[in-house]
What does this fold into?
Amino acid sequence: MRDETWASQVKIRFKNNLLTRIVIFIIVTVAATFGADIFIGLIFKESLRRNVDEMTKSKAAAQRLLASQTNQATQKVCRIHPFFGHTMQTKLDAAPLGWHLETDQNGFRNSREFDVNNVPDDVIVIGLFGGSAAFGWEVDGNQDTLASHLEELFNSRSKSNTKFRIVNLGIPGWHYPQQFFLISRIIQHLDGIITYDGFNEIMVPLGNTLAYQTALPPDFPSGLFYLPIFQKQTTEQILALYGLLMFEANYDPKSLLAHSAIYNKLRYMHWDKERNRVAKIVQLGTSVGSETSSIEAKTFATDPQSYEEIVKFGIDEHAKYSQLVDLIAKQYNIPVLHVLQPFHYADPDNPFDPTMVPTYSRLAFANGHPSVHYSKLRERFAELAKQADPDNSIGYLDLSDALKENRNNWIDLIHPSAKGNRVAAEKIIDFIESSPIRFTSVQ
It folds into this structure.
């Protein structure tokens, strides 16, 4: 009995001593940390303030560089965007390029007051995605764009009192990667999706890879908007520099003074280490250790170089992102119609006149008649159409030769005119009315 009592007392004393030691350890640790924080704060206070000033200047410089444009014309209408590459300037209502356009608060070609977040619940919202053809390049006034014609036809042919709003979400120089990013970010605000693509899927990868002294990644938007930033850089350098600029443009320098001195110093050391690592990549053009190479840089370590490889890359990207759009739309139970845009030279019997093609696009036609490569895109598009399940409200419509050789339908044989947009809109609405794809009450 005494042995049990003695053992119990030993256990109690041991527990008390252990608890006391733990409490003492915690107190000493807190005191030491607090003291160290005060000490570090006294030592590094001025250096941290200098760091903040330095980062503030870096942020301003990065933002200026990201906002720079190739020339005065693009500067008037375009802006660099961190997610989508670029959009138009916001709330335009002018004719900076000689033809009138109006843009909303997000830089898309809709009325200035339009906000996709504030559309009435009883309005069906359908997004029109694409490049300059969907945007309405050189079409004078928003009222004659494809989106406007589609909206008028959707509402006039509606079999109920349902109201439709077709939102123009096309941007010049975009192709499928940018469209997918946008769709994934705003899909909760949409009731339907129409994509309108084709030419940029071939032209943009070719232009980015071959047309300029600086080779841009082929799935970037059109290089016209990036050359001032990336002149004479390798692909690895481009990706590193773009990441560094975005990193610095989003700095919050004042936050470095908002926490404890130890935390502030460690955080700045981490930021500075990352900046130095990326700066070395930008300077040398090679990754500093394979483990530090970005995923994006590894992806483009073997960029396609030949004309044929680049065309294949563009066609493969079109197919991949089409299917990704289908998957995300299916998750949200939203109908999708993929449209291969009209193209004057889709017909191999149509004589090719290079003088009728915009200068910046001629590279896409540098290897024979444009129909040679466009036909490959059409073949891949037809394969996707066969694979699509109409019960899932996914459809594919090839309008490549819809506008034929009628010059009145074209502005420059790549971009449809106001009349061409009307013809394309009518063919799209006819297809929807006769298809199992359910865009609510249009059918």
User: Anything to note?
Assistant: The longest helix spans residues 2-67.
